[in-house]
Amino acid sequence: MTVALPASSPATFEIKSANLPLVALLLKSPDLDALARDLALRFGDIPDFFDNDPLVVDLSALRADEHAIDFTALINLLCSYRVAPIAVRGGSPAQMDAALAVGLLPAPDARITAARAQQPEITPVQAQPVEAAPPATPPLGALVIDKPLRSGQQVYARGRDLVVLAMVNAGAEVIADGHIHVYAPLRGKAMAGARGYADARIFALSLEPELLSIAGIYRTSDVPLPDNIWGHPTQVRLVAGPDGDKLEMHPIKT
Question: Is 9 domain-assigned?
């Protein structure tokens, strides 16, 4: 015999599952002074790069015998870049105890995923007639800039590609979470895959940059470009190798 029991739900709240997108800081050194310098170099001139994003501190790259970490100072440093440290993972018992003592939550199950996009598997299928569907909401398109960028100007395409139809002069910066296309001379700084998207690429009709960066891997003008690359149509991508990721440049044949 099935018995149905009467039930009631609270009028003031409900408990439901939720997923929270996080950014992760993979801490490679307990030296917070060095970390502050590196953060300033990477994000110091991009004040709106983060937007109060929740963050998990990943300690798995540190040795268990590393010096103690000043988590209060670390949290204050990260908050100055508009991120909100809420959790920690991967540390030694002593490191985890110190992190929990300042209010960070343990997140042992947090997975730090690589940002490389997987190539979809293509399976041939027989075409089937389909009914016309209502138009979908268009995805967020590329940010298009059609005016030259002068020295000191900066453009950041958050969450999308960046297309520049005019010259990027020396001293200017173009930044995108996706790809960067410059249909003109690129003479300033270009940083694609700014949030770790390693499959991002940089395309330029005339590559003469001060700095190139994809997913944090960069090359400055201190290292001259080959003659077949400098001033020519070029694409730049990030490739993995036995000694780590590196920037690879290919001429674009026109």
Answer: no
Please state, in angstroms and as integers, the Cα–Cα distance from residue 220 to each residue in 138, 178, 187, 192, 217, following that order: 37, 20, 12, 14, 10
**Are 61 and 95 a contacting pair, CB within 8 Å?**
no
Give the C-alpha separation, 90 to 173, whole Å: 35
From the DSSP assignment, how many helices (H) and strands (E) are in the chain?
Answer: 3, 15
CA distance 164 to 208: 15
Residues 179 and 91 in one domain: no
Q: How many domains does the chain have?
A: 2
Q: Write b or e for each residue in 132-165: b if 16 or more Cβ atoms lie within 10 A of its Cβ, otherwise e.
A: eeeeeeeeeeebebeeebeeebbbbbbeebbbbe
189 falls in which pLDDT band (50, 70, 90)? very high
Q: Is residue 17 part of a domain?
A: no
User: Looking at the predicted structure, is the pLDDT value of residue 4 above 80?
Assistant: no
Going from the C-alpha of 229 to that of each of 203, 236, 241, 251, the distances in angstroms are 12, 10, 21, 6
Is the confidence at residue 44, as pLDDT, over 80?
no
Domain carrying residue 37: 23-106
